[in-house]
Amino acid sequence: MKKAVAILLMALYLMGTTEAGQVLKLPLLVEHYVKHKGESPGTTIFSFFKMHYVDPQPYDADYQQDMELPFKTCLYFFTLTPPSILPVLPQLSFKVPAEAPVMREIINGEIPPYLPLHSIFQPPRCV
Prior knowledge:
Layout: H1 2-17, H2 26-39, H3 45-54, H4 63-67
């Protein structure tokens, strides 16, 4: 019993929210094919589908019936997507300095001549 109810509810949901409800129009398709077959007996099922679904649809006497065929028009445009949380992007702001930086002269920028450079490159000593 639960399985039948679940199938029924799923079928109702699919018919109402997707284009699966177009399947209910299949009797109209058969009726329209029989009508075309009666008007021109050489019509095959493939030529019927080509005429109604592949070729451009001319505006003729049975145009309204042609538009009622299944999968001819889109009834619903419904997509079920889970809500997504968009990340908050950081606000970047660049501030232009009010004045250009002042270039200052470095005092004692030279290495003193009395500093023996070879003294830095010695092996470690045990104390």
